[in-house]
Amino acid sequence: MSQFRVLVGVLRGGRAGRSQLQRGCGGALARLRVDPSRSCSSRTEPLLPAVVSSSNYVEEMYFAWLEDHKNVHESWDGFFRNIQASSPSGEADETPPSALLQGRVLSHSPDLAQKVVEDHLAVHSLIRAYQIRGHHVAQLDPLGILDADLDSFVPSDLITTIDKLGFYGLDESDLDRSFQLPPTSFIGGQHTTLPLKEIIRRLETSYCGHIGVEFMFINNVDQCQWIRQRFETPGIMQFTNAEKRTLLARLIRSTRFEDFLARKWSSEKRFGLEGCEVLIPALKTIIDTSSAAGIDSVIMGMPHRGRLNVLANVIRKDLDQIFCQFDPKLEAADEGSGDVKYHLGMCHERINRGTDKSITLSLMANPSHLEAVDPVVQGKTKAEQFYRGDTQGKKVMSILMHGDAAFAGQGIVYETFHLSELPSYTTYGTIHVVVNNQIGFTTDPRVARSSPYPTDVARVVNAPIFHANADDPEAVMYVCRVAAEWRTTFNKDVVIDLVCYRRFGHNEMDEPMFTQPLMYKQIRRQEHVLKKYSDKLIADGVVTLQEFEEEVAKYDKICEEAYTSSKDEKIMHIRHWLDSPWPDFFTADGEPKSMSSPPTGLEEEVLQHIGQTASSVPLEDFKIHPGVSRILRGRADLVKNRLMDWALGEYMAFGSLLKEGIHVRLSGQDVERGTFSHRHHILHDQEVDKRTCVPMNHLWANQAPYTVCNSSLSEYGVLGFELGFAMANPNALILWEAQFGDFHNTAQCIIDQFISSGQAKWVRNNGIVLLLPHGMEGMGPEHSSARPERFLQMSKDDPDHFPELSGDFEVKQLHDCNWIVVNCSTPANFCHVLRRQILLPFRKPLIIFTPKSLLRHPDARSSFDDLAEGTRFKRLIPDNGPASQSPGHVKRVIFCTGKVFYELVKERKQQGLERNVAIVRLEQISPFPFDLVKEEVEKYTDAELVWCQEEHKNMGYYDYVRPRFLTVVANRRPIWYVGRDPAAAPATGNKSTHFTELKRFMDAAFNLNNFQNKNI
């Protein structure tokens, strides 16, 4: 307990005061042989005046102090010094010692004691004010024209001028008085008291220089103390000459790299780092410090500004491979669209020269959607930690770089922060580095954000925020070192805000003077940070001018040699830019090791074993809910009859893959139970809190782990996270399930920028699976459609070209597509397609429109025979009734997909048209099964061809399938549409209207005369 709090406790009196007095003054009492009980008082009024007036105890303490200040505790030493200092001039020497506490002076002692205490408390408040608000007056803007917190107001409780002392009831005469320092401050070093003017000086040094620290909102005393110690301890911010020379060398590389690009490609956009060259040594300091703590893999994400420099000088990508990207005459050696050079990523293992340890650095490819990469990086980091058994993040970590406008403005930043401490999503601390340009593209921050700083969003997870003036390299290096140590110590997020500027505007072709004339007049006068820092080191004798110039010339030579070799066309290979290579999965050329897909069926005993586990509770004395008991009994009955519903089909897929050593991870909102209460993959004990059971993890002795985790209420962040997780390992089935299929629209950026086009842009294979509940059930426009038209529109197969049906057409078609879109109508086919996802020799994203009502539909069940050995996924399920046996009698073939099949079958039976109407299901919609559709069309040569869907005509599948059907029939037969009319909303919210629409298009589907003599 602080010595000053001892004194305050005494003044408060009562039992607490007595105990504090005894603890605080125990040494003095023992020395003076004073009975401790003499210091006690049963009264509750302030104790010290009473003691002074009615007891000799304080006087005895005072006499002992006069004899030797060391005779009393240091808290009393300070107290008596202040009393003596407050006495009129000469009185302390002329008056007998006892008179200082008795007589005329004694009559003033209560007020005097109160003043002493108030002054000490005021100084403590002053110290706390600097700790809380000192960053508001820190010198953060290298340009000196803008306050980093967008406010020039100086908090009234910070002592920036002498007259401000009055806020605390102090004045200029108090500046030389010594005050007891609280234990929540380290500014004293080895001293427990300091003069007020020295206290203020040290606080300004710690909190108001080129570093601003935000941390007092953290609700953990130990963490706050840890930060105080690293910024308040006198002289702690020191660098050796060797460290300064290393910093200078890194700053040279960062600066000269940008200068080289500007000289060679003056008319090219490169989104250079000018104005924040310190980012390169900052990142290398973080990596050095983390490597020394045991980290050997760092996954990074960043926007385009400075990416080429990071690739060159942090990841250490070969410079010739970077430079060749500027040559417009060279073409990529791989198929695919590719991407602009400042979007590409890289993975590289090298020796960290600061620690002589091997480290793998991965920079993830990222589109212009700046912060979209944030959750992707977190997901990949989590995956690497998971597969390496790194349960505390001691080996693998992530670094995220941001722009100030995007960090404040894009909601995905907030979503990603909220994953940071969730058990199934934490990466045990991310270091965020904000390149604070103090401007957006052309938008002033004062109209771009409502928060004082762009980094304020990080406060929601109690992440400390270190602001630093980017023109002070040593200040930046220090906060980077502290940030890395924080992450190592506490496994929590931390933010570094590099307050800088853009020397050339948004990009090198931009004219910033249009909208920021004053800022850019100052920037043109601004001396480069390399010049300022090199001059400082030369003046200090750390390096000589010759050594500096030699280091510059050395790096310039490296760039020139790389430029010469960059003209070799052989190096222009997009596979050099892989950020997530799978060397054991592909051949050396990056191609699949085979082009075949084995059957996906299972042995009977495997099906039985999985079914029995799925319908039981593996743990003893585990009390489950009666409703869950009924579900498990229902499963047991199905297994006994060799049948499976949708939940069992999923169980069969997951369980069999676990047996084969394939990790399965299912994530999303409420996936543990399932939105529709059908899954129950985690059972909860009804009598013991937090006791759970995952039956899937009790299937086999040496199985792979099954991870099923409810996510935060986020689609954008969580889907990005699972996408990143799927990048780490091809031998894992990673699934994300939307609560309802249409909720994927808030994750559309991840789907559009990463999943649909990731392989084309970045040669990035990914096997992520999206489960999207879909179906018109009369539940309204927001709980009906997973928007299949959007996925199909982005499928790249050519609607007007009938492919060559040679070899293993199915596998080749899958290999050439950008993703797979299916709508399974049976549990067995659902199981097959999930197993096929892993058994394919390559990885493609899989989009599955999953059912709602079919989860419990009595007809939507499969026999174990449908999953028997040798069976496989059916891309198309033909009619297997009377119509298929007599194709010559068939007048109409209805092609459909998904749930509407069961409604069509029911209507056909009611109208007695089993022999006249064939119903064919497309289970795989994209890539389109041209070969199987052709077989069905040729089988029913005299029948009308109809596409039936429950979605509106301008939605669903029709616009995708129609041109492909016409290609199959060579435009010689029409394909008619049956379904709902075009609409703006995907579904009606009126139940009656829903059934009216359903009846209308069912009638149209089976009216065999309604299409005759009509053109489509």
From TrEMBL:
It holds the Pfam family 2-oxogl_dehyd_N. Its EC number is 1.2.4.2. One of its GO terms (biological process) is tricarboxylic acid cycle. It is found in: Mitochondrion; Nucleus. The keyword Metal-binding applies. Residues 644-857 form the Transketolase-like pyrimidine-binding domain. InterPro entries: 2-oxogl_dehyd_N, 2oxoglutarate_DH_E1, DH_E1, KGD_C_sf, ODO-1/KGD_C, THDP-binding, Transketolase-like_Pyr-bd. One of its GO terms (cellular component) is nucleus. NCBIfam families: 2oxo_dh_E1, PRK09404.1, PRK12270.1. This is 2-oxoglutarate dehydrogenase complex component E1. The lineage of its organism: Eukaryota, Metazoa, Chordata, Craniata, Vertebrata.
